[in-house]
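User: Here's a chain of 350 residues. Predict its fold as tokens.
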Amino acid sequence: MNEQTRPVDQEIIDIFSLFLDETPVSAELIDTSRGEEDFRNTYIIGTAEGNRIVLKITANEFTFPEKIRMWARTVDEYRSLGYYCPKIFCDKNGGFPVIRYKDRDCVAYAEEFSKYGSFEERISGDADTQNADTGRYLRDIWTMTAKIAAKRLDYTEYPSAWCLYDTFEPSDETDEVMGNALEWKKTAEALPGEFAEQVRRIWDRWTENREALEGLYRKLPTSVFQADLNSTNLLVDEDGNFKGVCDFNLCGKEVFLNYLMRENFDDFEKEIGLIREALRVASETYDFNEDEKKAALPLYRCLKPLWYTRVCDLQEAGNDPEKVRECLDRIEHYQTADIDFAGWMEGPGN
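Assistant: Prediction complete.
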């Protein structure tokens, strides 16, 4: 991230004037671009009227006026449940203009400057919490997610970045789960021949499970979620209390069960514990139906055994046959283990 404060040039004043009549007096540039195909410039604008407004100028595959309108509505849905999210502003004509900026066509939109800081900002400035993580907010996150899921929001067909069986960006060849599994296959097939049969068995089992799951998965309930819950996007007050979320640019329609499981990443046993607790907490607010209970275990077997962390495990095992075998055995175990997820989805009244 590149940050710089500078006088407000006329180009930024002109873009800002599309949204508000206030007078910009300062502009802090935050460049979060990720290469030429994902351009993102954010300006924190200070105005003569004493306000701060966030101006975002973006050019990538997943940011366009219709998508931003969907983000803005989702922000309002979260806010309606009592969670703070910075509001997204359209321009004076009620839209999100496409402009020419830095020799490229970009879409511009404005946001309320957040009245709360992110969890990451809080721990970076507090020596006593340098080793803290977002674990203390898991119950808040799961409850918030369950409340959004219970609303069954259905105003968009754009998938979230966590989609399964669909792609997020037009240039994506596969969804992220398949992409990770293919990377695992590539890594595993480079192992010595003594592991070839076990690798083939793991891959065949995974593909069979994925194919069998799709029909049921397409029937599972969906809603529209923020889809990027990390320490930079969790908003907390000065006392560390959870207040809400920001940054909806990966937002979209998603199967709740997929979204809930994808929030949790760790070693197999700890992750299973997290998923079970997430299901239990969610069930206090959300009524899982029978299809969701039936899908939980095969969905886990599709999402987790060949996730990118398993690729890292193989790479870290290196040329040690014992460690490689341990990695492969562990994957096979969790591909076939009869894990009782459904029992954690019953809710307090059952």
